[in-house]
Amino acid sequence: MKRLKLPNAPSNQTGLVKAWTEPVVIPTYHPLPPDKNPMFLEKRVYQGSSGRVYPLPFTDRISTDAVEHTWQAVHSVPEALLRLPPERSTSSTDLPHPSPPSVSDLQLFRSHATLRC
C-alpha cells in the first residue's frame, strides 16, 4: 500500500494543537457520463415497490483511468495527524508521542491512494 504523504503545518501554527486547510492532489476515478438509454425495468426488484418507472439517465459506471484531482482537505495535529478531505474521504496517521510509548507513523484506519467518485 502506498504511504500517505502528509504536509507540514504552516509556520503560523505554533501550538501543540494545529489545524489548517490545504488542497491535496489525489488520483481520482471520475464518473462517466450517464447512459442516454438506460435499462428500463418493468418488474422491480424491491419488495412492495409499484408505479411506473421512467427511463431517466443515471450514472452507473466510473472511468477506468485515474486523473489527478485537487481536493480541499482539513488537516489537524492534536495527538494524531488527521487529513479530512470534506469532499470525499478520510485518512489518519498516528504521530510519535513522548509518553506513553506508542507505535509511530501507524495508520489509524485505511486510506486509499486513489478515489472513486
Short précis:
With about 120 residues, the protein is mostly beta strands. It has a domain at about 20-35 and about 60-115. The chain has no helices and six strands.
The helix fraction, in percent, is: under 10%
Radius of gyration: 21 Å
Principal-axes shape call:
elongated
> Approximately what portion of the residues adopt beta-strand conformation?
25-35%
Mean pLDDT: 69
Ends distance: 20 Å
- Biggest sheet, spatial arrangement of strands: 5-4-3-2-1-6
Largest sheet: 6 strands, mixed
Number of strands: 6
The structure class reads mainly beta
Note the total helix count: 0
SSE string: EEEEEE
Low-confidence segments:
99-104
What does this structure look like?
The structure is a single chain. The chain has 117 residues and is an all-beta fold. It has a domain at 18-33 and 59-116. Helices cover 0% and strands 32% of the residues. The protein is built from no helices and 6 strands. It has strands at 18-29, 67-77, 80-84, 91-94, 107-109, 115-116. It has a 6-stranded mixed β-sheet with strand order 5-4-3-2-1-6, with no helix packed on it. A hairpin with a 2-residue loop joins strand 2 and strand 3 (80-84). The radius of gyration is 21 Å and the shape is elongated.
